[in-house]
Amino acid sequence: MWTESSVSRRSFLSSAYGIGGIALASLLRDQGLLANPALAGGLPQHFDLTPKPAHGFGQAKAMISMFMQGGPSHIDMFEPKPELMKLDGKDFPGEIKYDDAAGASREVMGPQWKFKPRGKSGIEMSDLIPYMGSIADEMTLIRSMHTGVNNHGQSIYALLNGQVVGGRPTLGSWITYGLGSDNQDLPAYVALTDPRGLPVLGVDNFSNGWLPSVYQGTVVRSKEPRILNLDPPMSLKGEAQSRYLNFVQRLNREHADSRPGESDLEARIQSFELAARMQTAAKEALDITHESEATKKLYGLDKPATEEFGKRCLIARRLVERGVRFVSIFTGNQTWDHHSSILTSLPKACEQVDQPAAALVLDLKQRGLLDSTVVHWGGEMGRLPVIQNRAGAKDRTTVGRDHNTYGFSMWVAGGGFKEGYAHGATDEFGHHAVEKVVNHYDYHATLLHLFGLNPKKLTYKRNGTEQVLVENPAARVVSELLA
Fold this sequence. Notes:
Layout: H1 9-14, H2 19-30, E1 62-67, H3 74-77, H4 82-87, E2 104-108, E3 115-118, E4 123-126, H5 130-134, E5 139-146, H6 152-161, H7 171-179, E6 189-192, E7 218-220, H8 239-257, H9 263-286, H10 293-298, H11 304-321, E8 326-330, H12 342-366, E9 373-378, E10 382-383, E11 386-388, E12 403-404, E13 408-413, E14 421-423, E15 425-426, E16 433-435, E17 438-439, H13 440-450, E18 460-462, E19 465-467
Parallel strand pairs: 1-8, 1-9, 5-14, 5-17, 6-7, 6-8
Antiparallel strand pairs: 2-11, 3-4, 5-13, 9-13, 10-12, 15-16, 18-19
């Protein structure tokens, strides 16, 4: 028992049991990380980002996902529809599922840009995306994607976490949970966000859900400082910071050791420790000034339209080159949601990403990284084959296309996917996927397979139930997509 004679007020306030300990306890209580004896049970679990063995052979070691939030028009970019050209301006001949009935019409609008075969594979793509067309022989173009939930949020959830509801871990969190990371000085999972803002659903796009927080995506901003609060204040630089961090680490470890099984607490401590290591490693990885001028030009850094997205694609390559497991590159909120003025807004959106996206694939290939890195490009939906929002105009300057999650396109490259291959098709109108359909859960099962992860074995026990990314029993590995 302490007495007034055994400890001074100054020594009490400066001890680990004084104000610092009270502040730590308050912080942990506010964040819900204090141990709860009533919920205790089972063996303590330890979660970290050290490399872990896959369930089997997997060619893919990393993934870069370029997520085009809003819904790129597959009809105008990736899947030519001659029948629509014949029907252009006429009434749609069948049933159609609108999302925004108020602005809907039945007037068919065929593809507004010309298609032509690309590369030796002859995959047809439109003149909107000449750079992506130039890498046709490197990609698998999936023309039969399907989620069937006709709004942005639900379809984003389906493609990123496997269900149409939030609160679940995203694909990047599952893969880093299953495999860890090859670089302990950088985050395993990075989200490169758009300067125009976060996409629909915000941070849910890179959430760890109910997995331990060590598996959440770390945001890297589009401008400096790319990671906030990474630099210490002047008073803590150098040896002072080292001593301070060692002291805090010792207190944290003692606190954690007395509370076995508190996985969120353990993950939070690891995040603090990673942040300290990142002060040097992250700055080097995010610094593109030493890249060659040829590389910068390849990504379009010399052009105002492509500079920003090109920088993020180049940073993504640098991150996977240094052992980061999963990188998501997001476009801004509704960048591709062209309900109106599609004749001007779609070309603008394509111009911003076309060259950098193709450059990423070419750069990875020339560095010997494409075989082990999955590259993904696509959004949560496509568009309908009929006009929306004519608003009385005689011409088509104001019109757009409504949502379509029943059939749309995206492409993947590297990591074990086929080269120069177009898979599946929608109907002659581009509305419904009808040939070799790939559902979101099939896509996830295929990706996990390429990483050597068994969807049934990649589990996390939550409230006594084994949770998985791929829940639909009909999910299959789409072997036709694999090299």
